[in-house]
Design goal:
9 strands; alpha/beta; Trna Endonuclease, Chain: A, domain 1; three-stranded antiparallel sheet; globular; disordered N terminus; 252 residues
Length: 252
């Protein structure tokens, strides 16, 4: 039996307790009921409502393992928060999920492509790419140039995040991440912090998105108190949810 009041649906089912439901479609809830993990189910319910995901987008986020990818970047207390509040953007680390899943670009894993090809594919699917990045993103441009000492430099992708109130710079690497890549991003971030951002805006965030990431290289390149520079792997096919769950189990 269903009752509707003040934008909240309540459903009573025989021996089950009455629960509060967000105003999603019946099709959304039929899909959510298939998710066994209660924390994961509540997370997708909140995210579907907040982001106004149509059913197809909800299915895509679930199949891409969004919940598992966020869990891999959080501690145990923050995992519980996912179920209560969904994904929150309050600090730079909250942007991270790994891997970034870019299956919507239509690039096959066994086909060779250049960084320019990857960038063009992202631009052609920029709205889907921003959905994968997360909440609050605005696109600022591709190959954005800045100049100092009569030398030109180009940032692959520039975004602004209104929730974190800062610029987010992205560089694309199709090969193995090198320490020089992080050093280059540090220079980009320094330039934006010193010459572009306003006084009331937060420090710029730089993310190098790469095909292969060496954790040791990242750790040794960045300072211990780093809050601005990050590296994230990407893949162009949907991940196996089972493999993601195994990674979570190994971590815990």
């Amino acid at each position: 039996m269903f009752q509707k009041s003040s934008n909240v649906l309540r459903i009573s089912v025989d021996d089950y307790k009455t629960v509060n439901l967000l105003p999603l479609s019946w099709s959304h809830y039929l899909f959510l009921l298939r998710i066994d993990n209660e924390i994961e189910r509540q997370f997708y319910e909140i995210e579907a409502y907040r982001n106004q995901w149509i059913l197809k987008e909800l299915e895509r986020q679930f199949n891409s393992g969004l919940y598992e990818r966020l869990v891999l970047s959080k501690n145990k207390d923050e995992i519980w928060e996912l179920a209560k509040q969904g994904q929150l953007l309050q600090k730079p680390d909250d942007l991270l999920k790994e891997p970034l899943v870019l299956e919507f670009l239509g690039i096959k894993e066994d086909v060779s492509y250049s960084e320019t090809d990857l960038e063009k594919a992202i631009i052609n699917k920029i709205e889907l790419f921003m959905l994968e990045l997360g909440k609050g993103f605005f696109f600022g441009g591709r190959q954005v140039r800045f100049t100092f000492e009569e030398e030109h430099f180009f940032v692959d992708l520039v975004f602004y995040n209104r929730l974190l109130r800062c610029f987010v710079l992205i560089d694309l690497k199709i090969g193995k991440l090198k320490h020089q890549d992080m050093g280059q991003m540090q220079m980009y971030v320094n330039y934006y912090d010193r010459c572009v951002k306003l006084e009331n805006e937060n420090p710029t965030i730089g993310i190098v998105i790469c095909k292969h990431k060496n954790e040791a290289v990242v750790e040794l390149t960045l300072p211990n108190n780093n809050r601005q520079l990050f590296a994230a792997k990407y893949q162009t096919v949907l991940p196996s949810k089972e493999s993601l769950k195994q990674l979570i189990e190994r971590r815990t």
